[in-house]
């Protein structure tokens, strides 16, 4: 049985370094060291682990941050070993993060994610109920991660309003209710394989997606839904003034 709890020892935090290598396939220079987990834990952030017995199989690392003048958490990393993915471990880590934040009076957790990682987008938006209002081009520069495949590290910023009606309803239902009024940004379902087999086409898709997001988000739209099927992943956007967080 998987247990979720705060990371407590240097050994547990060291284990997060190896887990990063497995999940993201970073070079050593880009691994977040155990000392950063210590700092997060001691300065109002959070370092949570998912354990199968004594084995660390996932973690969530967050730092204190400010959004529109209010304290929030910035969830920098959430990782789960490949053999434990799609088993609810990531969701349990995020829910534990949410519960702890609410206990401390924190209203929102934010994090960045790659708009081309469609399953991750579905999890963040459709399963957790996050919204998106910002697109950050090439946020981290080029990385050594095979998941980025040499592309610019464009990122969306998820805003998870913990006590909002939309989030509570999504968590209760298990899936976000889709609004009837929306614009769409679609990405082919084979984008992950294209990154490895046709870098030029993947770059063209990324450029098109960047332009579409920037246009809509700059015109006060927000991502409020996501549909994933065999052919594509589709972001649903609506005017933010009409959104219910």
What's the gyration radius in Å? Answer: 18 Å
What order do the helices and strands follow?
Answer: EHHEEEHEHEEHEHHEE
**What is the total domain count?**
2
Number of helices: 7
Strand content: 25-35%
Please tell me the overall pLDDT.
Answer: 93
Distance separating the two termini: 33 Å
Count of β-strands: 10
The residue ranges in which pLDDT falls below 50 over 5 or more consecutive positions are none
Summary?
This protein is α+β, with helices and mostly antiparallel strands.
List the main descriptive attributes of the protein structure presented here.
245 residues; alpha+beta; Aminopeptidase; 2 domains; 7-stranded mixed beta sheet; 3-stranded antiparallel beta sheet; 10 strands; globular
Report what the structure shows:
- This protein is an alpha+beta fold.
- Helices cover 35% and strands 31% of the residues.
- The chain has seven helices and ten strands.
- Helix 3 links the parallel strand 4 and strand 5.
- The mean pLDDT is 93.
